[in-house]
Amino acid sequence: MRRIGLYGSSFDPVTNVHLWTASTIAHRCKLDLVIFLPCSHRRRDKKMKTSDQHRKNLLEMAIEGNSKFIVDDYEMNQEVWKIDTFSTMKHFKKQYPEDELYFMMGADLLEDIGEEKWDNSQKLIEENRFIVMAREGIDMLHVISKYPILRNQDDGSTFHLVDKGLAMEISSTYIREEFSRGGEPRYLLPEKCYVYIKTNGLYGSKG
Prior knowledge:
By secondary structure, the protein is of the alpha/beta class. The chain has helices spanning 16-28, 52-63, 85-95, 107-114, 121-127, 140-146, 148-151, 172-180, 191-200, and strands spanning 3-9, 33-38, 69-71, 100-106, 129-133, 159-162. Helix 2 (52-63) runs antiparallel to helix 9 (191-200) and helix 4 runs parallel beside helix 6.
């Protein structure tokens, strides 16, 4: 039985922090595989700055050569009314029935689930396991104890809390802004991705 982490995000674009986070979690939590799940441009709660295909291409370049990392475009191919994390986890549990799956997320998203802002929040927590990554200013244990939907499912194995130990919070937003304003974010993302973005004029960059 393998241990698999599902890492969902917009990856708009993927950054070195995304990669470092995935690598750190894989090492600390003894994961055999991390599946990067770029979300669809159809998501109602997000507004993408470039196409699904470009974001997928960038991710595939970024993880090239790492046998523990793969990209899956499952959510990109779903209709908007079918996209929610509970459904995504259900799909991958069918795809990997013999393995142990974890949804990887930041502590800020754990708060959102606690407040039931996500579709099927109750069933999501009841039927899945999570790796929760620390965010500055958020006490993960306090968040779990604060919300009944979280604390009543906390049997000791539902939430694996991870403090990465280093506050690396360079965001995709920051990188996009640097590109669009003539900045130089070159070493905040993989070199191949940097070249691809410049070549294709993404995020307002100039080739």
